[in-house]
Each structure stands twice: as structure tokens, then as C-alpha cells.
Amino acid sequence: MNMNPQRSRVLAVPALAALTLGVLAAGATISAPAQAQEYPSRTVRLVVPFPPGGTTDIVARMVTERLGVLQGRPLVVDNRPGAGGALGAEAAARAPADGYTLLVSNIASNGSGPALRAAMPYDPDGSFSHIALIGTVPNALVVHPAHPAKTPQEFIAQVRARPGVMYGSGGIGTSAHLAGELLKVMARIDLQHVPYKGAAPAMADLMGQQIPAVFDGLPAVLSQVKAGKLRLIAVTSPTRSPAAPDVPTFDEAGVPGYQATSWFGISAPAGLPPALVDRLGTDIRAVIKQPDMSARLIELGFAPGDMTPLQYQGFVRSEITKWADVVKRAGILVQ
């Protein structure tokens, strides 16, 4: 049967369009794995939303060194402190989603932020492709060696006797800040928070006896404690840390149920191609699982992470929900 030539031409247009779309789709499917295989072709920048010297910076430099060796190209650390981690996270969120800008995501920038700030310059979940959890770590309460308190019980008793004792942290919304506020509520003591632009300046003031106490991540304080420059009073985990087995928890000190641990991971701007997310997730987990790397993390007080990108994304979302509840219970004012 002969087909009408005009009808044949009409049918040819959608047929050609479908063929073109099929070719484009096939090209997109091929290009994503190819991009992942070629990556990285230049230097990758890892944004650390806190100054050098703190726990976030320490773990970032450990990961960049190993990841650079694994991928055959060096990574550079870009410290962007300020606003409790929000400034650095915003800078990373606004970068191109090409894998050449990564972020050390953490409880401050991607966990407690929405509960502590009336307006965020980015979405802690939706603005990022969450890739891998590096590990979790307890915070620590440290004082100057001249401080009269030697145990968490003594510290709590002295604050009750002299309400309004100040404690420093690396900034509003950090895990260290939340650790102090949670202790304030659960131990029924009057502590006054002094936020710094990172843990390092807080430690400098503590060692200069400008402030009596500081909460910070355990890895950042261990070397100063071992050197006798600081006294470690307590850790904020539910059980003692293998990195400081002689140091009690606040739960042991009569604050049952107290827990304020921190976490660190790697994220990228939202929209990173799935093939690159998987490639980076695989590489980062491989770095963390290296025996000497795992041993070093444990020595510093970390519990090494092992999550797929999908699992880490779910973890971040659960942390946002969890800390919103803590902020509400602690009555922390939204900034």
C-alpha cells in the first residue's frame, strides 16, 4: 500500500527528533563515566570552613594528603573561617559542580546550622552532594593547668559556686558550642558562651589565661594536653575515648545521658555528576580504610567512617533533625 508523501514527511519529524534525543542521551551516558575516569585533570580545592590548627583542619589535611596520592594529583586546603563554618560552606556551595571544589562538611556547617540561624545562605542538605563520612569524634573540655578543677565533678561544682563562668568554642553552631550549651542545661549550671573565629584563637586565649575553659574536638587538644599546656577535664562521648582512656565522661560525672560528639565528611556542590560522586566516595573510603590511616584516626580519638554517598546523605539529614531538637531543648537563641 502506498503511503501519502505528506503524511510520510509529518511522521519523519518526530522520528528524527526521537533519534536525536536517543543519540544525545547515549552521549550523556557515556560522558559521565568518561568524566569520572579522566578526573582529576587539575588541582582539587578542599574548603575547610575553619582556621588552621583546629580539628576540622587537622582531619582535612590528613585526607587531602592521602587522596592526592591515590588520585595522582595534589589537593589544596582552602581555609575559609567565619560564621561558625557558614562562610566556607557557602563558598563551596556556590562553586561549579565539577568535582574541583570539595567541602569538609561537619556538624556546624551541615548539621546544626538550620536550627541556630534564622536565615542560611545555603541549604545544608540541598546545596550539596554529600559524598563520604570521614569519622566521628568526641569533644573535650580543657582548662589551663593552673585552673583549680581537675575533674568534671569539680568543674561543675565550681561553676555552681560561681555562676557565669565563660567557655570558648570555635564559633556559634559548632559541635563544641552545642556541647557547652547541652552541659549547661543537663547539669543545671550557668555557663556563658564566648564564640571565636575558629578553635585555634580560642586555644590561644585559654593558654594565655584570658578565658577559663574551652570545648573543642579531642584531636585538636591532645598534643597540648600531652605537652602539659592544657588539662583535659572530660570528653563528651557516652564512653571513654581510646585516645584518652584515663579521662572520664560527663555521664560518669553525674550528668546521665550527656553526649555531644562531632563528625566530619566530604561534600561537593549540588549537581555533581553521579559518576563523580561514586568515584570520590570510593576513593575517600579507600583512604580511610588504609590501615595506618585508620590507626591514626583512632589514635586521635576518631571512630573512622564507612558510608556510601547515599548513606552519608541520610546521615546528614538525620543530624539536621537531631540538632534542631537539641537546640530547642537547650533554649539556644537563633542568630
Descriptive key words:
globular; D-Maltodextrin-Binding Protein, domain 2; two-stranded parallel sheet; alpha/beta; 8-stranded mixed beta sheet
Quote the beta fraction. Answer: 15-25%
Q: First CA to last CA: what distance? A: 77 Å
| Poorly predicted residue ranges | 5-31
Number of domains: 2
Report the major sheet: 8 strands, mixed
Write the CATH fold name of the largest domain.
D-Maltodextrin-Binding Protein, domain 2
Q: Whole-number average pLDDT?
A: 87
Rounded Rg: 24 Å
Just give the CATH class of the largest domain: Alpha Beta
Give the CATH H-level superfamily of the largest domain: Bordetella uptake gene, domain 1
Helix content: 40-55%
The helix-and-strand class reads: alpha/beta
| Total beta strand runs | 10
**Could you state the order of secondary-structure elements as H and E?**
HEHEHEHEHEHEHEHEEHHEH
Instruction: Note the overall shape.
Output: globular
Annotated CATH architecture of the largest domain:
3-Layer(aba) Sandwich
Number of helices: 11
